[in-house]
Amino acid sequence: MAKTVVVIPTYNEIGSISGVTERILKTVPEANVLIVDDNSPDGTGRLADRMSADDPRIHVLHRTEKNGLGAAYAAGFAWALDRDYDYIVEMDADGSHQPEELPRLIALLEAGCDMGIGTRWIPGGVIKNWPAYRKLISRAGTAYARILLNSKLHDLTSGYRGFRAESLRTIDFSTVNSQGYCFQIELAWLFERSRGKIGEFPITFVEREEGVSKMSTGIVVEALAKVTGWGLSSVIGRAPERLALPTAGTAR
């Protein structure tokens, strides 16, 4: 059976991390969970340590500073690759991604996808507890990125993803410099431009009930600036180099 780890970055998620982790391990008992904590002042890291002491499937990576979602995921991915996991999954800590949908994501990787994405904006996708303006902003941002990057993917900012380790190893994360949610766009675009096999499946996205959203004006500005820059670079032939992925083809 393929070794699977779910990487969850945390910053002040003490109210949700225990429940999310419990649901993951109940849904996929053979999986491991890696909590990547950015020195949360609310004690999330200490709680994660207690959880790890009680269950050998739970691991904790402590980082000394909060310097972006991209850096946290890069550290978590490096930890997982060093330990020879076959499938590496990313998921939010706040309960917005449903652990019960993990088997569908893992099935895409088992079918040969380099990357699987849980998508909100395809038939079957559901968003709960978002006001209309949040949906409008998200859909408009996705449409803008798809147009500028000539992408066929339907949810470039989704943080519910899985990767085959052999494909993730091809990425030099020192060249991936997006810090906020733009990291998700950059990573998906790298895989897509390299003609990696990508599978999408509809998810139910639920607005957090615990904690405070990490979305900020700075994160939005970073995403708009970088997507615009990448799009213009593609037009004039100066886009970043493609990855040398081990598989080819695209599945959606």
UniProtKB/TrEMBL annotation:
<feature type="domain" description="Glycosyltransferase 2-like">
    <location>
        <begin position="6"/>
        <end position="170"/>
    </location>
</feature>
<protein>
    <submittedName>
        <fullName>Polyprenol monophosphomannose synthase</fullName>
    </submittedName>
</protein>
<comment type="similarity">
    <text>Belongs to the glycosyltransferase 2 family.</text>
</comment>
<dbReference type="InterPro" id="IPR001173">
    <property type="entry name" value="Glyco_trans_2-like"/>
</dbReference>
<dbReference type="InterPro" id="IPR039528">
    <property type="entry name" value="DPM1-like"/>
</dbReference>
<dbReference type="InterPro" id="IPR029044">
    <property type="entry name" value="Nucleotide-diphossugar_trans"/>
</dbReference>
<dbReference type="GO" id="GO:0009247">
    <property type="term" value="P:glycolipid biosynthetic process"/>
</dbReference>
<keyword id="KW-0808">Transferase</keyword>
<dbReference type="GO" id="GO:0016020">
    <property type="term" value="C:membrane"/>
</dbReference>
<dbReference type="GO" id="GO:0004582">
    <property type="term" value="F:dolichyl-phosphate beta-D-mannosyltransferase activity"/>
</dbReference>
<keyword id="KW-0328">Glycosyltransferase</keyword>
<dbReference type="Pfam" id="PF00535">
    <property type="entry name" value="Glycos_transf_2"/>
</dbReference>
